[in-house]
Design goal:
Elements: H1 2-24, H2 37-44, E1 49-54, E2 57-63, E3 67-74, E4 77-87, H3 90-106, E5 110-115, E6 118-123, E7 126-135, E8 140-149
Antiparallel strand pairs: 1-2, 2-3, 3-4, 4-8, 5-6, 6-7, 7-8
């Protein structure tokens, strides 16, 4: 009886942590620009790889089956971030892209359409390129976000 309760408790805890870590994984990487790497780690968890080979610059790499993210920082904080999320359908990818653009517009960003699958989104201090890419090899779609801290 005690063993089954312990097993069920551990199972519930496992799924809680699995769900919350998956929930934290999003590709709104631009929100980390200007923040220190400890804040990135508090949002996204322990990175898959950390590069500290250059003392003036540090990189964090995250990778799961559906996500890839990179954050590059110096002593002033994150100045470049890239994220890519994979979707099984074009509709799901377009919905994610539209959601990101809508959230950005509500936060004072402006958007320029480069073509049907690529957008420049910017505001003072932040420049981003958002795009959808069809991977013909895997038959999946990728939403990519490339964000840079900018002077203008």
């Amino acid at each position: 009886m005690k063993t089954s309760r312990l097993f069920i408790s551990l199972l519930i805890i496992f799924f809680f942590f699995l769900f919350t870590s998956t929930l934290a994984q999003n590709i709104n990487v631009h929100e980390m620009l200007g923040k220190n790497l400890n804040q990135v780690i508090s949002v996204y968890g322990k990175p898959a790889h950390q590069d500290r080979s250059n003392p003036a610059m540090e990189c964090l790499f995250y990778k799961t089956e559906a996500y890839q993210m990179v954050f590059v920082a110096n002593k002033e904080g994150v100045f470049q971030a890239e994220g890519c999320k994979t979707f099984n359908s074009k509709t799901a990818a377009e919905n994610q892209l539209n959601k990101i653009i809508s959230e950005c517009l509500s936060k004072g960003f402006e958007s320029d359409t480069l073509n049907a699958s690529e957008f420049n989104v910017y505001k003072l201090g932040v420049k981003m390129i958002l795009s959808i890419f069809e991977n013909n090899y895997s038959q999946k779609y990728e939403v990519k976000v490339k964000a840079n801290k900018s002077e203008s």
